[in-house]
């Protein structure tokens, strides 16, 4: 069961926070899309996604050779509310990240 301290530790990392907020904004993304927006390497993004998956914040879906990630609808309501509040505070910045993102390497 996800505890508040665990969620805040997870979201205190800028890369993980960016991933969560991008998924909140977009609904579903593959690693290459996240790499393009964050300008981080695929191994780094994959490592952070693994932490988010282990905490039950992110789910994946395989489609051919691609894996798509989305926020889990099964996370506690308080955690989803915390993420939504953070997204509301940063949504304009997140949209700018997406507009200025490098083209996807998919």
Task: Fill in the keyword field for this structure.
alpha+beta, 106 residues
Rg over alpha carbons: 13 Å
Order of helices and strands: HHEHHEEH
**Main beta-sheet strand count, sense and barrel state:** 3 strands, antiparallel
Q: Summarize model confidence as the mean pLDDT.
A: 94
- Report helical residue fraction: 55-70%
The largest beta-sheet arranges its strands as 1-3-2
Give the N-to-C terminal Cα separation: 34 Å
Oligomer: single chain
Can you characterise this structure?
- With 106 residues, this protein is an alpha+beta fold.
- Helix content is 61%, strand content 13%.
- The chain is built from 5 helices and 3 strands.
- It has helices spanning 4-11, 14-26, 31-38, 42-54, 77-99; strands at 29-30, 58-63, 66-71.
- It has a 3-stranded antiparallel sheet.
- A hairpin with a 2-residue loop joins strand 2 (58-63) and strand 3 (66-71).
- The longest helix has 23 residues, at 77-99.
- The radius of gyration is 13 Å and the shape is globular.
- The mean pLDDT is 94.
